[in-house]
Amino acid sequence: MLEIKNLQLDFRSSERSVRAVDGVSLSIGDGETVCLVGESGSGKSVTALSIGRLLPTPPAYYPTGEILLDGRDVLKASKRELRALRGRGVSYIFQEPGASLNPVFRVGAQIKESLKLHRPQAATDAEVVRLLKLVGIAAPETRARNYPHEMSGGMQQRVMIAMAIAAEPRLLVADEPTTALDVTIQAQILDLLVQLKRRLGMSLLLITHNLGIVGQIADRVAVMYAGQIVEIAPARQLLRRPLHPYTQALINSAPKLGATADRLANIPGSVPSPGAMPSGCRFHPRCTKARDDCSRNAPELIEVESGRQARCPYWNQ
Amino acid sequence: MNGASDQRLLEVRNLKVHFPVKEGSVKAVDDVSFQIQAGETLGLVGESGCGKTTLGRAIAKLVNPTDGSIWLNGEDIAAMSGAQLRARRRQLQMIFQDPYSSLDPRMTAAQSIGEALEIHRLGKNAEDRRRRIEELLQSVGLDAAHGARYPHEFSGGQRQRIGIARALAVEPKLIICDEPVSALDVSVQAQIINLLCDLQRQRGVAYLFVAHDLAVVEHISRRVMVMYLGKVVELGTANAVVQSPKHPYTQALVSAVPQIDETAERPRIVLAGEMPSPIHAPAGCPFHPRCPIAVDRCSVEVPALREITAGHWAACHLAT
Q1: CATH class for the region spanning B8-91+172-314
Q2: Using a CB-CB distance cutoff of 8 angstroms, which residues of chain B are in contact with residue A95?
Q3: Which of A33, A145, A184, A217 has its CA 20 to 30 A from that of B100?
């Protein structure tokens, strides 16, 4: 249902141009859950924002690439087509629900606003209550009359989810939806997303830096580093047997509950900034397995096993 | 028992921090007691609003305790203020979550660290202080030349290193680390955790490590304390608390941590509801409205923290 082909994204200002995403290809099937994983600055969020064309031009430009949502290229869509596509095609929820909700309107009115835009015939109080009930809010009639500040972070995120699914989207993009929430509330929200996805037949693109969440929720996972995808695989396989050195290092550096390791394996250095990418493989300055030619040759993302791709020529060594 | 006989560095007894509000008071920290030995790491976990940050700040005397005592090296600092307190502060430093907002943007790294030395009159002269600053920068894995840079010229991980160097400058016995790695990426987080462990080994400094990430806390701590709604609900060795939690809240907390290695299917306990507002704390056990095993007694009687097995404490009527 979604196919991103060779996407490049530049941020341009009068002084300079910086490539934030460089050649990303990713597909999501009907009803599938895909996780996009990476550290800050890897390009995962801007890739996801590009699907709904939520980055203004300027500064965002797309030199090459296609984003096909149900066969139509989002990058070529007119303003009018984009309005139709946002909401019913793709909806978003973000990390800070408090920052995404309007503080001066009651949450019920905000959900109704979303309905008016995307499903005007259903913009009724009854539908608002049904949506609030659907996202697990107790006493929905009363809660609809609350202002955002009268709700906890977990409840605000439920309201955001209600607004996003009000449009009955084909694809729900959740950008770090639980990062600002406590772990017991995180578990509730993840459960809710999985359950809604099944009930409403959506696809789900979840952006996270937490590999534990990947294991819990994803069918497939793509790992991004410095604007490129370095590995794509079915979630369980990737976590059990990561093939790219970056994925391996990322998994090793996360402390695990009940593990007895004395020291955490860390990745030396830090993520390169988009203006100053290393030559050759972008990970080579931090890679413990790097060889001489890694600083010269930029590796391609290649199919290494059925359903698995990795951007490292030495993946099996 | 002033703790003179053993390695007891910090002893907190019946500490309360209550904030007055219109409808009464918020019991942010309510009757908390524990100890930290010299050179030890005690982890403190709990969700937002449980009082863990307030507890850390009260021990550093950044907020004033309402009641109770804080014995640091045999002296009660709970009621101290002014010059008396300033002299004790050298033993106790703090590292914060967001190193960007805890460093002065108009001071270079060297100035930030040097300020700590000047306040406590450490170093014989300017030359001696300069040498100390360089050593400190190197000990946290930075270059001596980095001292001339301003906070905005550093990455988040590097800024946290400066925060650690500044805390170490006065050679404290105890550092209160308030969510020191939660704003950092996983790979950088591992670097900082390893650095904290190395520094402890080299200098024998003790940590009170406050965080919400149970896996991080388990990794770095010898013992772990769990808080809920201002009270300690469980205290034990890191291994015991994570592997065989006694309190139903800790059990839910452990089971909710998403794990990379899901080979062993763990029973997941998804708690209903959320932590109640501390203004309207429930009667009896603070956890009983969300507790899957609560009985009638739990809504009436506050459970005391009691030793369930040797060195493993839990505040639950039903824990065995």
Answers
A1: alpha beta
A2: none
A3: A184
